[in-house]
User: Fold this.
Amino acid sequence: MADYIYIEKKYTDDVDKISYFNSLPFDEQVGMGKTEEELRVSGELIDKKLFINHEIKDGYTPVMKHNATDGFYYHYEKVVQVPSQQEQIESLKEQNAQMLLALVNGGLL
Assistant:
């Protein structure tokens, strides 16, 4: 049996977005516990030689896609930076202090 990667696709706008990926579908520990026939019903088995690796781009996450023309490729989507919990707490403390100062200066406290 060839060395396969298992994928499942989600179809959007003439492009197949890879929604699930397993690089060792037949492995005893991390595999999927299914036969080749079962896997071909729910998704696709792709020869590892045809598979590409993604680039690492700061601030972007790779989204694997597939279409009949280009085959497999990556589209890089910008990662939305979410402030850490500590940064959010510090921001709320600063906002709270500014509101208290405004209330004191306005004679409300």
Remarks:
- Residues 81-109 form one domain.
- Residues 99 and 105 are 10 Å apart (CA to CA).
- The mean pLDDT is 84.
- The first helix runs from residue 36 to 42.
